[in-house]
Structure formats: C-alpha cells, structure tokens
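dude i think i finally got it to work??
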Amino acid sequence: MVLKIIKNVRGCNGLTYEVLPHPSYSPDLAPSDYHLFGFVKDQLRGQRYETTEVIQKAVIQCLRMVGKEFYRMGIFKIPERWEKCVKRSGDCVGK
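look at this
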C-alpha cells in the first residue's frame, strides 16, 4: 500500500523537505531484485554445481565480469521505477 500523504517537514537543520509517497516494500524498487538477480540467473542458467562454494565462485565471477556501467544503469532506473510503482499504488511495475 502506498502512503498517500504528502507533507512538508521541517528538519532539524531548519530546511523544509517534502515526504514523498512510498510503498513499504517493493521488489520493483530494489536494484538487486529488478536488475542484478535476473542477470545472474540468466548467466548461470542450465549449469549444475556440486557445492555451495562452486556456486559462490560462479556468482562472484559473474558479478565481476560486468563493468561499472551495468551497476550504474540499475541505480539510475530507480526514479522511473519508483514513479511507476507509486502511480500503480504499489502494484508490480514489471519490466
């Protein structure tokens, strides 16, 4: 459920800021959920791993093979996804 109340709050430093509506939790707003995990899953799909250690190494290798731009793109999607989520009253944004 999205908090519908928007109010101005005076901070301890004397500045006023606006409290924005925000779902309590949404995987649509967590870059790890919408950007990172899907990528890792796609990279590791179809492979078999014998031990937890081997899986951990494969995930670490996968995360190291992408550059900074990959992570930057995930972070910079947050405002757009936040806006969609709020407009949909917390319903899933999807891809």
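Helices lie at 31-44, 52-65, 68-76, 78-87.
im so relieved honestly
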